[in-house]
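User: My collaborator and I are trying to settle a disagreement about how two of our proteins should look. Neither of us wants to argue from intuition anymore, so we agreed to look at predicted structures for both before our next call. Could you fold the first one, then the second, and keep them clearly separated?

Assistant: That sounds like a sensible way to settle it. I'll keep them separate. The first protein:
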Amino acid sequence: MNGPIRRQGPGGPLIASGYVWQATRPKVQVVMMGLLGLGGLGLALTINSFFNPIKDIWIAAVAAAVCLPAAYVAFRFRLGQCGFIFHERGPIEAPYGLPWPRIRRTRLSCSASEVKSVGMLQNVDPSSENARLYSVVLYLRNGDIIHLTSKDYKFELAHKVATELTNALEELQAPRVEARY
């Protein structure tokens, strides 16, 4: 599921809003494909050794046992869905995990009421003079900066994510007018 997230409470008021997107990173994709290939080859050789004995098959079995789970982790945490949800009562949820090294965490340490704005930071790629990479960040009211994404997004994707998260935060923080009868 890609796109905006809007959750309404009983009676219709907005209680949570956010954005979910698909992140593809070419460098991680190459590593993941290599891990899958090496793990698949190890698994195939291990299965083949049941029918035709192969000397030193333990190397292939270890390659399968190590590479296939590593490829799953790379796919799950760095190539899959990314997203953030701002809740009315405060917590900021990251249902698909945070950027490395906090990939297992699903909540930010700050609350939605502490967020002043969502923006982008330009990061310099030392391997290329022309490549400008960006990360999406939260600017907090106390001056802190929290990175929401890794530092390798192209401008278009970083701009789209920052814009959608800004819209989600503004909708959630918009004053509500309640009708009284």
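The second protein, kept apart from the first:
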Amino acid sequence: MWRLLLILSILPIVAALIARWWFGLRVLAKQGRRACRCDPGRWQDAFDSAIIPPEGDVPAREFGSNLRRIALVLWAARDPKSAKSREGSRRFGLAVPPLSGLIAIFAFFVAKVPFTGALAIFFAATAIAAIIGLLTLAPELRAIAHTARHLRESRTFRRSDDEEAVIDSAIAHAWTEATPPVLRILQR
């Protein structure tokens, strides 16, 4: 029984790691290094935010991180219930795998659960957190797309290639943050 749970738990974990790499890390490695320059005045006019863009030629990944943060702030103002739900799933992924790991360790040392069972408990909790993180990613991606529309309309970047690299980097940041931190340690 424990082995079956372990095998069934490893599949979503591997899928989450592959999705994080394909949609997140790979895009950041490709597009995130592109040097971009924006007009700070237009950025402020477009977003009216406290998040000020960096000046000069800056990698698209930094602009993408700022764009994602602005998208999250605007999303929380526009649809607080949905934004809180996404934040709750992020917290779930932050807390549940380590907590289940501690419980599995205690259960193993008390001799109530075999080592395979303790490992299966930890992997199952991590798999559930990864699944929830990926399933709740769609509203965040819609929020980024909504904010990206404002970015395109404002013509903040002189070149459209820079604009696309920044938007792709913002989406990639969302994908990299969708998995639990326990799994992010594996892909640095």
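Some points you might bring to the call about the second protein. The mean pLDDT is 91. Residues 16 and 103 are 23 Å apart (CA to CA).
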